[in-house]
Amino acid sequence: MAILINRDSRIVVQGLGRSGLLHAQSCRDYGSAIVAGVTPGKGGSSVDGIPVFDTVAEAVCSEGATVSMIFVPPPAAADAILEAADAGIELAVCIAEGIPVRDMVQVKRALQEGTMRLIGPNCPGIITPGQCKVGIMPGAIHRPGSVGVVSRSGTLTYEVVQQLSDAGLGQSTCVGIGGDPIIGSGFIDMLQLFNEDPATESVFVIGEIGGSAEEEAAVWIQRHMRKPVAAFIAGVTAPPGKRMGHAGAIISGGKGLAGDKIAILKACGVQVATSPARMAEALLSALTP
Amino acid sequence: MNLHEYQSKEILRLYGVAVPQGGMAETPEQARQWMENLGRDVVLKAQIHAGGRGKAGGVRFATTPQQAEEEARSLLGSRIATPQTGAAGLPVHRLLVEETVAIDKEFYLSFTLDREAGCYCLVASAAGGVDIEETAAKTPERIWRRRIDPCLGLRPFQARRVALGLGLRGESCEEAVTLMGNLYRLFLDRDCSQLEINPLVITGNGQLLAMDVKINLDDNALFRHPQQQALFDESQLDPLEVQARRYDIAYIKMSGTIGCLVNGAGLAMATLDMLQACGGQPANFLDIGGGASREKIAEAFRILLQDQDVKGVFVNIFGGIMRCDLVAQGIVDVVGAACPWPIVVRMAGARVAEGKALLAAAGLKVTCADGLEEGASRMVALLCPPVVE
Question: Is A58 on the interface with B (CB under 8 A)?
Answer without folding.
Answer: no
